[in-house]
Amino acid sequence: MLSSTLRTPVPRLARPLLARQYSSSAPTIGFIGLGQMGYNMATHLCTKSQSPFVDTVAKFQDENANATAASSPADLADKASVIVTVLPESAHVRSVYLGNNGVRDGLRKNTLCIDSSTIDTSVSIDVSRQLIGLGARAVDAPISGGIMGAKAGTLTFMVGSENAQDYDAAKVYLERMGKNVVRCGDLGAGQAAKICNNLLLAISMVGTAEALNLGVRLGLDPSVLAGIINTSSGRCWSSDTSNPVPDVLPNAPSTNGYNGGFKSKLMLKDLGLVANAAKDSKTPLMLGGLVESIYRHLSNQGDMAEKDFSVVYKWLAESQK
Amino acid sequence: MLSSTLRTPVPRLARPLLARQYSSSAPTIGFIGLGQMGYNMATHLCTKSQSPFVDTVAKFQDENANATAASSPADLADKASVIVTVLPESAHVRSVYLGNNGVRDGLRKNTLCIDSSTIDTSVSIDVSRQLIGLGARAVDAPISGGIMGAKAGTLTFMVGSENAQDYDAAKVYLERMGKNVVRCGDLGAGQAAKICNNLLLAISMVGTAEALNLGVRLGLDPSVLAGIINTSSGRCWSSDTSNPVPDVLPNAPSTNGYNGGFKSKLMLKDLGLVANAAKDSKTPLMLGGLVESIYRHLSNQGDMAEKDFSVVYKWLAESQK
Amino acid sequence: MLSSTLRTPVPRLARPLLARQYSSSAPTIGFIGLGQMGYNMATHLCTKSQSPFVDTVAKFQDENANATAASSPADLADKASVIVTVLPESAHVRSVYLGNNGVRDGLRKNTLCIDSSTIDTSVSIDVSRQLIGLGARAVDAPISGGIMGAKAGTLTFMVGSENAQDYDAAKVYLERMGKNVVRCGDLGAGQAAKICNNLLLAISMVGTAEALNLGVRLGLDPSVLAGIINTSSGRCWSSDTSNPVPDVLPNAPSTNGYNGGFKSKLMLKDLGLVANAAKDSKTPLMLGGLVESIYRHLSNQGDMAEKDFSVVYKWLAESQK
Amino acid sequence: MLSSTLRTPVPRLARPLLARQYSSSAPTIGFIGLGQMGYNMATHLCTKSQSPFVDTVAKFQDENANATAASSPADLADKASVIVTVLPESAHVRSVYLGNNGVRDGLRKNTLCIDSSTIDTSVSIDVSRQLIGLGARAVDAPISGGIMGAKAGTLTFMVGSENAQDYDAAKVYLERMGKNVVRCGDLGAGQAAKICNNLLLAISMVGTAEALNLGVRLGLDPSVLAGIINTSSGRCWSSDTSNPVPDVLPNAPSTNGYNGGFKSKLMLKDLGLVANAAKDSKTPLMLGGLVESIYRHLSNQGDMAEKDFSVVYKWLAESQK
């Protein structure tokens, strides 16, 4: 059903029929931020929901029969009772929700606002509280899983909410876009969990690159060494699932010229969120600060910013001349 | 059989009987380095081998019927055709094998020398080559698994050898002391694999401590956060098997006052071997250098040197006043 | 004159007489931010200027005959043609100038706004540009020299301005509060120069602490070693002027229990500004990131946050148990 | 006198005449290690001493009338009562003094051994103690000042000695090769002072590079910023004497394509000595470890290992694409 919808846009005259399928109680869903991630997520949500859907991208409306246009976040908020946003940075989230002609200007009572952007924990909490103060419900639900997961509908959502009811309400919609939804705690907890995981991910990846590079320099076969590490105390996702040394794992980005995967510039962005959260909470980071420095440095080298973040192995090893 | 042997020493007069059981071709095994690790390993090897065994510790001879005394490494080498050593540092390995009254002075042709110490890769290679030059066979086989593994006989051995035959020959004996024996490559490869794994282990542990400490400071429940990380891209042994936050895992050293496990001072020793190998091979380490600095710093704080290396969480978090 | 003024407040009736001394063309000076730094600076500026002075602190008005009260930044801006501000953080500068009842609301054409706060370069530039857009003149002029320098009137001002005229206009007033005024470049250049100096200062101080601690651990007399360094290529302000080892220099904060001087928490604040500027400009920092981590860590240890930043020596050396 | 000697080798027949000038009491000086540094030092020492001189380089003997050949360190020790050595690494010092046919084999009672190599503090102490045990006198006297200083005879010597008499005895000869001789303490203290200074030097240089690079990225003129730093608390040798940004200082290596000066590979060698000393003394280094990592990394980039160590600015800034 989904795939056919995607292949051949439903003719416009078919719409009334589809519309009739909606149960009278079907909520209208609004979606803002149809970028690479968002477009795939919105497609899952729209087709699986079979309820009125509002967004701001004509192409999406052409491809999804039950999707209609909103002229602005305010207009969208006026039409929808559930709003999902997937935006690049803190400033976008603030302006889409609270700026001129933003969601706030059209917000209805009890509307459920689900922000799946990865942004500053402090900004996420602030925006959610303001929306709640205006009579809406708000949760933060950042994503893990990347574009592949968005296409496959297998994303993980880390959710922060004021209470269990808001979490349960959001879960219904998040499960249409992913397969793993977990409540992390109060407002902002989703953001906090996301950046803590990515902090450890970045450290593990650089550490894996250092350990394998040392092994190679000492004459070990990287596949043999990885095999040992993966059954020992050094094992981690960066070694057993996305190994940074080309040809150790056939499907790892490193084997594909460090293409696909999670771009260094995006990891650097998340490490910036980590730095802000650490500063706000007066939390000392040692490796975290250095890893940010390393990704800052390599992101200025050639095209490394656009490569999967496992390219740090190349940054380390290519220097061996 | 093992346990009863340990409980009630076999009376001396029982020895001749036992001795008769040996097949005429049974090689005599020599063992040097009966410390906490070595004693347990030697007990497994001695009892499972049921062949003549030579060592230098009276207590061991009292507890193991087929064990007899050697007066020195040279005397032991004169009696044994298989020699296993488990020693603390490079200098000990060099002197036990090549020093005055060392193994070299009693070495027989084709004796198989298995060094299970964790020492400098360059020293390990040098000593092995000299033994081979003298007509013996030599492999490096450092251990992973700790004292618990030594007692249970579940150690992992990472083996470096000149050829497959020497590896196969050593495997027979190593399997009596552990359950996982893997060939890593040529001479020194066992040492190299061991320190590469421990480098990544140290980095992962400090990274896990930083990520969980940040999460706690941001208001997350460490068990909830660990649960998320363990099913996400941040997962690693340090998070899912030996979590550094007390009470996240019931059996982790952190939950037991950071007792048991792998002492910080031993991790610091291994990181020193990493630093030497990196210097010799001109390999840049970024996180590796910093992690060594951190363990150097905390090893001078109170009793942290004697605690499991996951105590780095305490070093980070206790500062939060 | 200054000192007597400070000792015995001029009776209120004396004011008209003093007032008559003003040349008709004497500009009215407004001052906002009479904290430890600001109060001393304002006293120099007020007494040396002998022109109408406006501020918001009654005590200051009691102690300075030509000082009168302003009810708000807007009221002050309405009365003054030169405004000097010394505020703690970016948010304060933004709200004092551009917030409700802020300077903007009373601003006169061509008023010269001199902000001597140390804040984010990007915020400084933004606020200055907005003030200029409103018809005023604005320069950033952060301070080096500390409270001692503020009392003695020996401060250094690092100035960023749109053009030389604005710099020259500000210089007249800055020279009444300090003895060294230097133009660093365009708007924000003063802030940039200040944080670049303090970045290097922090790195040099931690480096000096590491080098001297290593020397002491190797058996050297810290005074002998400092003497050698101070005539060699390692010499720096942190070694020859504010040595972190107690008793090497009689007047260094370290010799006075790390009291006086520049508090660790203030250095940490400046390193946060460095981190923001580095992120905004995509500039990799290696030592800079680690030094921030170190000051974050020690600022959570006992009372180190309140001690001179040379206390990092204690943080390193006290661990030597 | 020196220069003419260098320009036109003294004809052999001149030797007897020169020889006659020697006071009967003139000690014979032996010199081992006539590399780039040593050759220039030996030339000063030989010509200024006007006493019998023994070495192992024919070219030197051709150029210096009173220099005669020694066939080995042992032969040289047999002829000389003062021995100066300038060797690359710990292993060379150990073998030249204590190896086969080494100094030890020809050593005379009370011979003064002056080792001006920069090597491991622990090795330096060990070799000196063994020589003293054999009846000789020994001091460590590593050098600061580089090849330029060796040619000009303006070197600084950092001396470690058992007592003041040995220091005074060595000073006589060191002053003929340099202009600044300072006693740092007991045996090994010269080595310790040298590496502590170079540790701080390396940290200051990388810190200066980071601070100036940040300033440039923020739009500052590096010369203006350097001028401010050099009169502020950030001032250090790396900023005011060997600034790493090209064209800030006309005579700095950076302005000459990072040629001349102190090669990165030599700084990396000294940082390796620092790491060994820190490990032996259980001293935590934070910036020191990271700076070694940075020089390890850049030393593998193109020809940076051969460039002045201020090239770290290029390593940082060139990445800004």
UniProtKB/TrEMBL annotation, chains A, B, C, D:
Active site: 194
Designated name of the protein: 3-hydroxyisobutyrate dehydrogenase
GO cellular component: mitochondrion
The 3-hydroxyisobutyrate dehydrogenase-like NAD-binding domain, residue ranges: 188-315
GO MF annotation list: 3-hydroxyisobutyrate dehydrogenase activity; NAD binding; NADP binding
Protein family (similarity comment): Belongs to the HIBADH-related family. 3-hydroxyisobutyrate dehydrogenase subfamily.
Natural source organism: Linderina pennispora
Pathway membership, UniProt: Amino-acid degradation; L-valine degradation
Reaction catalysed by this enzyme: 3-hydroxy-2-methylpropanoate + NAD(+) = 2-methyl-3-oxopropanoate + NADH + H(+)
Signal sequence, start to end: none
Source species, domain of life: Eukaryota
Domain 6-phosphogluconate dehydrogenase NADP-binding: from-to ranges: 28-185
EC code(s) of this entry: 1.1.1.31
